[in-house]
């Protein structure tokens, strides 16, 4: 649950995909020599690492890592589809700051000077946060993100630290529209499900989906009973 949005298909994405697939093929012999039983996975990982050098998979649970790796390995080899991570694990401070920014950046009904956002007192340095911080700041500067006038409204779009599956390492955000569309069709085979219809980039680990398919989606996080049960005080201020 968070801010990243999927990027619409661009002509250059097909070129990137083709080049990455060729790279994976070229790397296959080396991967075979290294791990004969996992050569496709390894070659895929190496090739995607070159295409998405900024992505950071650290902090994902073993289950989420295995599901995500299996899904994007198959996506590459079966359909030539690249799946890159824009955000995985987040520490609680990062997640709460994202929520606070959505609320405190709003021009009304809470003027910015009245906000005492958690993140102003607790700067964080996690790698995952750096990945999304810069574009987010630019968006805030443009005034394109500061549109939620209350904590309740912000909660429809950004989870608190107490409700986000990113904090437990069981969620991944996907950057490209085509990649999210691929996961929408095949993600259940790997236990990855879109949970909220207003967040097509966000996938939770749901191992039971492998046998039972993904559960119906909620309109947004505020409809998720898990969140209502776990929801901590909306702000740590
Ligand atoms: Zn997310």
TrEMBL record:
Keywords: Carboxypeptidase, Hydrolase, Protease
Basic and acidic residues composition-biased segments: 221-237
Region of interest: Disordered: 214-237
Protein known as: D-alanyl-D-alanine carboxypeptidase family protein
Molecular function GO terms recorded: carboxypeptidase activity
Domain D-alanyl-D-alanine carboxypeptidase-like core: 75-193
Database matches in Gene3D superfamilies: 3.30.1380.10
Originating organism: Nonomuraea marmarensis
InterPro entries, per database record: VanY-like_core_dom (IPR003709), Zn_M74/Hedgehog-like (IPR009045)
